[in-house]
User: Which sequence fits this backbone?
């Protein structure tokens, strides 16, 4: 039931296909799985696999690809040095969930240098965690450092139970957290979404600078609460701290620091009946009064806005 990998550096030339109903366990930083040749997955979880735990490995130059799996935990691993712009789509990811999954937990991992040290030369697919149509997905207590993008979760069908909680993002280039419905299809309704307690810091100029984007169109009841997002460089504003869309989305008790073009942006053509309350937007680096703290695109659409504060110093 448990397959233990000893300490050492293991060169992996092609993906290792894992059987289900197993725990795969390394010895932390001492067990290094290093992808040779082109960047690509090191572990591959095939469709139908279930009851898998992967823990305590150091992945270098490649990560984990998941098919349509259930009941899978990826915990306490490190992922680093994954970059190859010539590789196929998805190869630059640390964890790539290619098909609908159910009951996946990604927790207490570290991600570093995903997409050319997280810089501009990475592609949009150079993402630490990239997922399509998951249900009951929990991403919690992970640390992301120098990544092109932290995580991107995309939906083309109705799903439930997405929790993004208590993660730390330090030095991100594009976005830290992105939850997205690609089009305006009213049949896609993603429920039970919570993005809470995350911390995001942008260190450099030139990034797209949207820290958290939860734009789920016709989906109902997403919660974006208790997050802190910060940009640490002065100069012209770019992007927004938190971007939300959807129906009855709640953006509450978030703190946004720095010269964002909008502290919390609400897309009214994609949002109705939003609750935007008890947030703090602090401009101690920007002080551009013409940039809105709370911004509703094309009107408020009967949304509620109360108890928000704009500060000049935090």
Assistant:
């Amino acid at each position: 039931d448990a397959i233990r990998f000893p300490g050492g550096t293991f060169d992996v030339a092609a993906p290792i296909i894992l059987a289900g109903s197993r725990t795969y366990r390394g010895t932390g930083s001492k067990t290094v799985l290093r992808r040779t040749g082109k960047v690509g997955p090191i572990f591959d979880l095939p469709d139908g696999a279930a009851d898998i735990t992967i823990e305590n490995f150091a992945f270098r130059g490649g990560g984990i690809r998941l098919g349509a799996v259930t009941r899978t935990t990826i915990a306490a691993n490190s992922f680093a040095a994954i970059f190859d712009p010539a590789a196929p789509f998805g190869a630059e990811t640390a964890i790539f969930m290619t098909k609908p999954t159910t009951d996946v937990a990604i927790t207490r991992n570290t991600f570093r240098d995903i997409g050319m040290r997280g810089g501009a030369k990475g592609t949009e697919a150079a993402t630490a965690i990239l997922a399509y149509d998951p249900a009951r997905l929990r991403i919690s207590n992970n640390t992301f450092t120098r990544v092109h993008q932290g995580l991107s979760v995309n939906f083309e069908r109705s799903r439930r139970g997405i929790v993004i909680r208590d993660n730390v993002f330090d030095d991100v280039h594009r976005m830290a957290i992105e939850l997205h419905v690609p089009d305006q299809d009213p049949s896609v309704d993603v429920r039970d979404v919570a993005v809470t307690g995350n911390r995001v810091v942008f260190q450099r100029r030139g990034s797209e600078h949207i820290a958290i984007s939860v734009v789920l169109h016709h989906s109902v009841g997403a919660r974006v609460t208790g997050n802190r997002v910060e940009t640490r460089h002065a100069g012209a504003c770019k992007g927004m701290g938190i971007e939300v869309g959807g129906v009855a989305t709640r953006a509450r008790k978030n703190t946004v620091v720095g010269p964002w073009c909008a502290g919390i942006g609400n897309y009214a053509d994609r949002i109705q009946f939003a609750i935007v309350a008890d947030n703090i937007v602090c401009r101690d680096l920007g002080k551009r009064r013409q940039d809105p703290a709370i911004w509703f695109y094309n009107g408020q659409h009967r949304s509620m806005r109360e108890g928000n504060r704009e500060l000049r110093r935090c």
